[in-house]
Amino acid sequence: MPSSILDSDYYKDMFGTAEMRAVFNDHSRLQAWIVTEIALAQAQEKLDIIPAGIAETIEKSGKPENLDLAEMKAEFDKVGFPILPFVKQLNKACGAEAARWIHYGATTQDVLDTGMVLQMKAGLVQVEDNLDGIIKATAELSKKHAKTVMAGRTFQQLAAPISFGYKAAVWLDEMLRHRERIQSLKERLLVGQCAGAVGTFATLGDRGIEVQQIMMKALGLKAPDITWHTARDSWAELVSVFALMAATFAKIANEIAILMRSEVGELSEPFEVGRGASTTLPQKRNPISCEPIIAIAPKLRELVGSQLTAMIQEHERGVGQMNIEWMVIPEAFVLMSGSLKHTRFILENLWVGEATMRKNLDLGGGLLMSEAVMMGLAPKVGKAKAHHLVYAAASKAHENKTTLKEALMQEAEITAVLSASEIDTLIDPVNYLGVSEKMIDQVLKKL
């Protein structure tokens, strides 16, 4: 029975996806190792380093179903290194003649690292697909609600009007930067290696670099300029980018959860009968999809620390750092898939309470329009005096439980320079959105 929540039959789909787990399960890992060995043999055959036909033999006979996986596991438990038992099983399955040339000139870490990069490449396809879906949904929200006025809040208090489209465009711009980060990262991340024990190609001599280049081309990866056995910065960068993405999604989920509160009611997760129900409070519709998004973010931040630790290696191969990565990388991808899945579901189906947003603007008697009035008054009496006059009016509105307009109309120095209709214009939230629409358009042009 699984003991990890990521593999738990009960919880696993809350924090990840079946598709991403399939990329990093035992079968896919083994298949990545096999594909790596085939590509190595193909490259060496092409350069007449090993006899022709070895790669074909591995491809035909070295399939997972032809390997004794129980025996391989038992030997791994004994040896402590995963590739030696794997190569022994390949040798057995492919026969004595082929066994002479399998894994020729390679080392354990070459196969482990290149195999993991192949898995990461497959995982990134899913990450990018879901991120693109989220970007599309957020862009649609930005366009649709460019004029949907709502309260902007600072320090959790009503501040000044914004549009919901503006809020969504801020999210969108952040997501577009994440997409740029991933696209840029792939140039550094999708790189394999096969240079032997200390990375010098000593086992393959002058032809080593050429073998590696041909091998990586066959795998659809880049060949490095120099071996990276102890240079793990690209892998740390990947986990860091995932943590950034998860933090963005957690921020959005937290915002939606807050705006779902009964006394706010401006946004809501998509509702399905029974989803988010309480065991004791039958009336509740809880932000149930927001919850795992918020929970995943700190976990991914923790994994960044672990992966940064794996960068600190001694000599030409360190003790224990590879093992950290075996835990971190698959978990990071699975958690990222969970965050993406829930975020996409919410944003593609988000309920926007336009009427409630407009209603909430009037909470406090329109006091959130104080800045707008001050800026309308400033050209007539100066900024400092305008601030003083509006501050006094707002304070009276607070104390007397009146509206901002009523308090303004009682200030002779204000009514001397502003008519009632001018005040009405100034306190209308629609008229105080600045250049929000232009900024939304600037973000949308990046798509």
UniProtKB/TrEMBL annotation:
<keyword id="KW-0413">Isomerase</keyword>
<protein>
    <submittedName>
        <fullName>3-carboxy-cis,cis-muconate cycloisomerase</fullName>
    </submittedName>
</protein>
<dbReference type="GO" id="GO:0016853">
    <property type="term" value="F:isomerase activity"/>
</dbReference>
<dbReference type="Pfam" id="PF00206">
    <property type="entry name" value="Lyase_1"/>
</dbReference>
<dbReference type="Pfam" id="PF10397">
    <property type="entry name" value="ADSL_C"/>
</dbReference>
<dbReference type="InterPro" id="IPR022761">
    <property type="entry name" value="Fumarate_lyase_N"/>
</dbReference>
<dbReference type="InterPro" id="IPR000362">
    <property type="entry name" value="Fumarate_lyase_fam"/>
</dbReference>
<feature type="domain" description="Adenylosuccinate lyase C-terminal">
    <location>
        <begin position="365"/>
        <end position="444"/>
    </location>
</feature>
<dbReference type="InterPro" id="IPR008948">
    <property type="entry name" value="L-Aspartase-like"/>
</dbReference>
<comment type="similarity">
    <text>Belongs to the class-II fumarase/aspartase family.</text>
</comment>
<dbReference type="InterPro" id="IPR019468">
    <property type="entry name" value="AdenyloSucc_lyase_C"/>
</dbReference>
